[in-house]
Amino acid sequence: MTIIQIDPLETCQHPIQSQSGRRACWLEGWIEVPAHLHDAVWATYGWCDLQIEEGRLVGVTPTERPPEPEPEPQPPSEEDVTLDMLADHEERLCMLELTTTATVAT
């Protein structure tokens, strides 16, 4: 049996649960999903509006899932920091060689 939470979470998603061997809804505030709506409910991943009549789920309307939040930027790894320092050091050496060569040539 599959059940779905009647009131959505803050994210507007309705949590869904399934357990084999159940014959009745086992959680308060949830409603049984009839067999003919089982696939439709799971296809929405809970992002849906529920149509409930006389205490029974009679339909679901898929809703748009909100966009995933941007992942938080990761701090640079120790290797990246080292490579950046080496590149900076190499650039300074090149600049020093160029200015030294230009001074000697004149």
From TrEMBL:
Region of interest: Disordered: 60-81
Name this protein carries in UniProt: Toxin-antitoxin system toxin subunit
Source species: Flavonifractor plautii
